[in-house]
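ARCHIVE CARD
CATEGORY: sequence design from structure
SOURCE FIELD: tokenized fold
FIELD CONTENT:
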């Protein structure tokens, strides 16, 4: 039996060893973490809905009506009336004809890609696409090609050289480690010109971007039958799960062929009930998106002139590039000493030499809390030991 101690030690020596911290209580800007009270800037709860009383109450009501577990896959007895209602609501929310509810975003991407392409086909992936998209492409058996990040002109060149067979282009809408946006209009046009599907992973855009939070496709004004939308529900929506949306025949095909949908137990019906409540809140609470934009502007103004590079992001994700793994982790540790929890993100999650602090904002953060983070980073920068 192989002992992994030496491999773990090697990761630790490169400042690449990941650790978990135990959170006690519901998600919020202020968290109790292993006995300490910390101000968190590491959550994807962008709208502050993870502990919203209306969503919690809906989940409790769902438990009373449906019990805890779905007890079977959706294609057996696991597809409840709550799931059926939610799929219709999800489709309406993002302005597409049909939707299919998955257990999570990773499984949705693996399932959709595997349902659409296989041997003899081609998947073309943005260089910075999420791991689930890359894994889905690899597992599908299709040929995998990569195009430079957000470069629609190079994508066109890659597609022009693809052999016969189905072509599927996959991209994030909001890139989770950089916070930038894909040029969805350009990508959709290129895909239409080359008879290719476009799968858009909007994990970090749903609820945050678009009219009333309807997502990145709506914000970009993209609506086409060759575009497939994937949204996750464990971030801005504050619950769990994911869905894909698109043309009815496409969704029907994915239902028949996505192995990660066919061969897994359905999510608890009570979760679907809670998610329905979340959709109503996301659609109605525009102040949450306005607060996010204001806090991002405050942060960007306050961090201007620091020795680290703040990437140009208009979203709730504000990455501060430090570079060196050990220095980045030391900076995160120094913030933690002051009660500020900001995660250090190192390779292989991001490219080598681009280790960063990934600052995530929530609509429940206050300007004073963001000001506390700004002051701490300015003070640490003035010390000069994190260059």
């Amino acid at each position: 039996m192989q002992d992994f101690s030496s491999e773990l030690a090697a990761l630790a020596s490169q400042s690449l060893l990941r650790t978990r911290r135990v959170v006690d209580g519901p998600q919020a800007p202020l968290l109790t973490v292993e006995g300490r009270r910390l101000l968190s800037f590491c959550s994807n709860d962008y709208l502050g809905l993870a502990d919203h009383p209306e969503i919690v109450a809906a989940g409790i009501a769902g438990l009373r009506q449906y019990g805890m577990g779905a007890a079977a896959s959706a294609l057996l007895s696991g597809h409840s009336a709550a799931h059926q209602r939610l799929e219709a609501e999800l489709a309406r929310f993002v302005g597409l004809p049909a939707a299919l509810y998955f257990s999570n975003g990773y499984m949705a991407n693996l399932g959709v890609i595997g349902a659409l392409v296989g041997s003899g086909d081609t998947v073309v992936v943005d260089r910075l696409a999420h791991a689930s998209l890359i894994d889905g492409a690899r597992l599908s058996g299709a040929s995998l090609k990569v195009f430079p990040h957000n470069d629609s002109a190079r994508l066109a060149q890659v597609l022009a050289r693809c052999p016969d067979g189905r072509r599927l282009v996959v991209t994030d809408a909001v890139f989770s480690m950089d916070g930038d946006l894909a040029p969805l209009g350009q990508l959709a046009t290129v895909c239409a010109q080359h008879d290719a599907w476009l799968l858009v992973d909007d994990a970090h855009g749903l609820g945050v971007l678009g009219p009333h939070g309807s997502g990145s496709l709506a914000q970009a004004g993209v609506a086409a039958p060759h575009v497939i939308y994937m949204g996750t529900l464990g971030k801005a929506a504050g619950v769990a799960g994911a869905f894909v949306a698109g043309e009815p025949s496409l969704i029907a095909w994915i239902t028949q062929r996505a192995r990660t949908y066919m061969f897994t137990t359905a999510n608890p019906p009570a979760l679907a009930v809670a998610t329905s409540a979340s959709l109503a809140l996301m659609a109605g609470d525009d102040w949450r998106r306005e607060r996010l934009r204001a806090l991002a502007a405050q942060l960007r103004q306050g961090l201007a002139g620091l020795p680290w590079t703040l990437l140009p992001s208009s979203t709730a994700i504000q990455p501060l590039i430090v570079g060196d793994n050990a220095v980045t982790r030391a900076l995160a540790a120094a913030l933690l000493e002051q009660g500020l929890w900001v995660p250090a993100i190192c390779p292989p999650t991001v490219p080598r030499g681009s280790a960063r602090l990934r600052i995530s904002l929530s609509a429940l953060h206050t300007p004073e809390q963001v000001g506390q983070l700004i002051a701490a980073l300015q003070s640490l920068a003035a010390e000069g030991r994190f260059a």
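CARD ANNOTATION: The longest strand covers residues 317-323. The first helix runs from residue 5 to 13.
SHELF: design records, drawer C
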